[in-house]
Amino acid sequence: MAQNNPIIGFLPIIIVFLIFYFLLIRPMQKKQKELREFLRNLKKGDRIITTGGIYGTIIALEDDTVVLKISENTKIRISRSAISGLQPGAEKEEV
Questions:
Q1: What is the pTM of this model?
Q2: What are 6-61's pLDDT values in tens digits?
Q3: Fewer beta carbons within 10 angstroms: which end of the chain, N or C?
């Protein structure tokens, strides 16, 4: 009888892990890094949309919060992590 190599038994598990890493984990880490960079580079006047679907223009930036102007006389303070991205087709607005 031939001896079984223990590495051969773990080979399918290793292959599945590599597939998960390159198809799921790595792209997710890249997207999270891009989002962190985006949030770090926000500027006054940027037109953004929140994860809750609120559209607004940034009028003030603090460490972890952002003040948004959502209508003529309405301002709200939100967490930076609640920003999902720039408004589609948005250009910088003068505040």
A1: 0.68
A2: 888 888 999 999 999 999 999 999 999 999 999 999 999 999 999 999 999 999 99
A3: N
The per-residue pLDDT for 6 is: 80
Listed in sequence order, the residues at least 6 apart from 76 whose beta carbon sits closer than 8 Å to its beta carbon are 54, 56, 67, 68, 70
Rounded Cα gap, residues 85 and 79, in angstroms: 13
Q: What is the DSSP letter of 52?
A: T
Say which amino acid occupies 63. Answer: D
What is the phi/psi pair of residue 89, to 5°?
70, 15
C-alpha distances out from residue 50 to 11, 76, 82, 89, Å: 44, 12, 6, 15
